[in-house]
Specification:
557 residues, nine-stranded parallel beta sheet
Length: 557
């Protein structure tokens, strides 16, 4: 009862504080169909904001930037200048609930107020029980009580500073705080829709062991696989991911038994075991929040470095091989999102699958980030892209991303429409020496590296979000008529081949540079002659001078 009274009291105080801070009366109840949500539209699932599809050109702040409104003051204008429309910002449980049941929403309200003033949206990242697998953002009153709030234990019995997902007390405390956060967001933002989505926890998992070895975890591991999971596996057996299906098959497709009886012994099964229990814990947190305000919610994954095995990566996280387990365990999560710093095409393919719209909440910035953004939106129908450390990017990286976002913001209405009917495609040449053939409408686009392109040598480590990234030739293609396209990108040569009966020859008709101003095409130079290979090839050049091309194509008789 005390907990409920405290929550109600803190909610009322937050509502009054928000009304004062925003200079308005408390908002009316949100209109359900206008709350930001995900919606299937044609061939794509899209984020709908105020009734219209929204393409998220995002950037994630460094972990602690959003804990200080003063620190953020000079950052907001830079984010606007870099053509972002959405900022991903962490919310610290410790800052939100410094004493149990006493909530301080002033920082969250200030973030919403500042984002709104700069015409930016927010995705809030709940740093609750876990951030990068650790529990460093939990409040002191949680950290100091090892009895009430037990931790993950290693195989040798040593403790770690990670809250155990096998503790009901841990889960209830987190869910209580998260519900209060969502209630406050509804009250101060339920009409304005500044906040679009919520990330629940961050890069969960156990490392360097593959699972928790606390007494509660050991008992669960020796016990039966939950019937809920077994029922779901049997129901969706034909659609399971190959990895999970293979482990289940190797153990004889058992319909009951312990984890090792159903999936075989070894750290790989321990990883699946932890996936189920992390997902069930986070499901309870997400459900508590959605009961207050049902914004789209997701979890993010720290991906597996090539060659690493369970225990060397965040075991139990929402990894591509355990998506089926996470889906079964956490229906209130709208999607599982990869943090991608390497092997972009591989990971976007593994996560951009039916039922899991692609959102990339963390990635490299700069030239490489620009290429991934074009590719994700054009080829994988992504709802959003967000480089990490957006507030501390080196100037060259910031300039490259700002140029890409400037182009994508102009093309956003057409990209969103084209995602629904399959009239958009993209290319990314990584490694840069390869070539591609992309089918779009009645033409195949033959894509290769532009002559003279020289990537920096050596390229920086792909796992670092801070280092300047090597340019990656890339482009997005939008078909607006059978023989007409908008094309943008850099460092590529493109020729067209007809896919309809007749001679396999096509030429370039009109090629003009231009831009969209208030949604209207404003033409610049017309290109022909040497600039178009005498009408046979498009050349996308390097640098900010390259904008958008409007191209018409005709067939040779």
């Amino acid at each position: 009862m005390r907990s409920r009274l405290l929550l109600r009291y803190s909610a009322v105080m937050a509502l009054l504080a928000a009304a004062s801070a925003f200079g308005q009366a408390p908002s009316a109840a949100p209109i359900p169909h206008l709350i930001p949500h995900l919606e299937k539209r044609g061939q794509a699932t899209q984020l709908i904001v105020d009734g219209r599809p929204f393409l998220m050109l995002g950037g994630e702040l460094r972990n602690n930037s959003a804990t200080s409104l003063k620190y953020m003051q000079p950052i907001w204008p830079k984010l606007v200048a870099d053509h972002l429309n959405t900022v991903l910002a962490g919310v610290s449980w410790a800052q939100l609930e410094p004493a149990e049941g006493n909530f301080d929403f002033s920082t969250v309200d200030g973030l919403i107020r500042s984002a709104r003033a700069h015409h930016l949206h927010l995705v809030l990242l709940w740093f609750g029980s876990w951030k990068n697998s650790w529990s460093s953002y939990a409040p002191d009153w949680v950290k100091r009580d090892f009895t009430r709030f037990p931790r993950v234990e290693m195989r040798d019995g040593s403790g770690t500073e990670r809250l155990s997902p096998f503790s009901q007390a841990n889960c209830e405390a987190d869910a209580h705080a998260f519900a209060a956060l969502m209630q406050n967001i509804r009250e101060v933002d339920g009409q304005a829709h500044t906040v679009l989505m919520i990330q629940v926890e961050n890069e969960v998992g156990v490392i360097p062991d593959a699972r928790d070895h606390s007494p509660a975890a050991n008992a669960a591991y020796r016990g039966p696989v939950p019937q809920r999971l077994m029922d779901d596996l049997q129901k969706h057996r034909a659609a399971l991911r190959p990895y999970l299906l293979a482990r289940w098959q190797a153990a004889g497709f058992r319909t009951s038994g312990t984890w090792e009886q159903v999936f075989g012994p070894g750290p790989e099964t321990e990883d699946l075991f932890m996936a189920w229990h992390y997902a069930r814990y986070i499901e309870k947190v997400a459900a508590a929040g959605k009961a207050e305000y049902p914004l789209p919610m997701y979890v993010n994954a720290a991906l597996i470095v090539p060659g690493f095995t369970a225990g060397q990566y965040n075991s139990g996280g929402p990894l591509s091989h355990s998506l089926d387990i996470w889906r079964a365990a956490a229906p209130d999560l709208n999607l599982l999102a990869p943090d991608i710093y390497f092997n972009f095409e591989k990971w976007t393919a593994k996560y951009g699958v039916p039922g899991n719209p692609l959102f990339i909440p963390e990635a490299v910035s700069g030239d490489q980030g620009a290429a991934v953004a074009f590719f994700a939106f054009g080829d994988r129908h992504a709802i959003g892209f967000s480089p990490f450390s957006i507030d501390r990017m080196p100037k060259p990286a910031a300039a490259a991303l700002a140029h890409a976002y400037h182009i994508l913001s102009q093309l956003s209405p057409m990209i969103l429409q084209a995602q629904t009917n399959g009239t958009v495609a993209a290319a990314m040449l990584e490694p840069v020496n390869r070539s591609l053939r992309v089918r779009l409408g009645d033409y195949t686009l033959n894509i290769s590296r532009a002559a003279g392109f020289r990537p920096p040598v050596p390229a920086p480590a792909p796992s670092s979000p801070y280092a300047p990234s090597a340019p990656v030739p890339h482009a997005i293609f939008i078909r607006i008529a059978p023989d007409q396209f908008y094309i943008a990108g850099s460092d590529l040569k493109i020729t067209f081949t007809p896919d309809t009966p007749g001679p396999p020859l096509a030429g370039l008709g009109t090629v003009e540079e231009g831009s969209f101003v208030d949604g209207r095409w404003v033409a610049g130079r017309m290109l022909a002659g040497d600039a178009t290979g005498e009408g046979n090839a498009l050349y996308l050049r390097t640098g900010p001078a390259q904008g958008i091309l409007r191209v018409t194509v005709y067939r040779y008789k």
